[in-house]
Amino acid sequence: MKTKTYITSIALCGALCSPAVFANTPLEVVADITPFTLSSADQQLNNDAIERLRADDKIRGDIAVTTQRGQISLRGTVEEVAMIYRSVEILRDMEGVKQIDVSLLNN
């Protein structure tokens, strides 16, 4: 079972509130951390991915980030489909990224 570390309380609201409630809210990222299986490289990659997603003002929503063996998985909700593509664009050039899974990222 994964332990969730909530970066801000609004991230939890994203899962419970309707999209209209957080439509103008900046991106809130929730990092899923599995303490016993994350290598230091994956932890750093996870932190870097979170920072890059937060820094982009074109992405709005509630995203959970999980990294394992160089694969970054994103899940949650964004306002528009274009934001899913933007997320991949932002993360794909990061050193150490082998794959990006957005199959659980919805709008």
Total beta-strand segments: 5
Strand order, largest beta sheet: 1-2-3-4-5
Summarize the main sheet.
5 strands, mixed
- How many helical stretches? 3
End-to-end CA span = 26 Å
Q: What is the average per-residue confidence, as pLDDT, rounded to a whole number?
A: 76
Helix content: 25-40%
Rounded to an integer, what's the Rg over CA atoms?
13 Å
Q: What's the order of the H and E elements?
A: EHEHEEHE
Overall geometric form: globular
Strand content: 25-35%
Structural class: alpha/beta
Low-confidence stretches: 1-23
Description:
It contains three helices and five strands; from the N terminus they run βαβαββαβ. It has a five-stranded mixed β-sheet with strand order 1-2-3-4-5. Helices cover 33% and strands 32% of the residues. The protein is globular and about 30 Å long. With 107 residues, it is an alpha/beta fold. A hairpin with a 2-residue loop joins strand 3 (61-68) and strand 4 (71-78).
Fill in the keyword field for this structure.
5-stranded mixed sheet, 3 helices, alpha/beta
Fold blueprint:
Layout (H helix, E strand, L loop, with lengths): L2 E4 L2 H8 L11 E6 L6 H16 L5 E8 L2 E8 L2 H11 L7 E8 L1
Parallel strand pairs: 2-3, 4-5
Antiparallel strand pairs: 1-2, 3-4
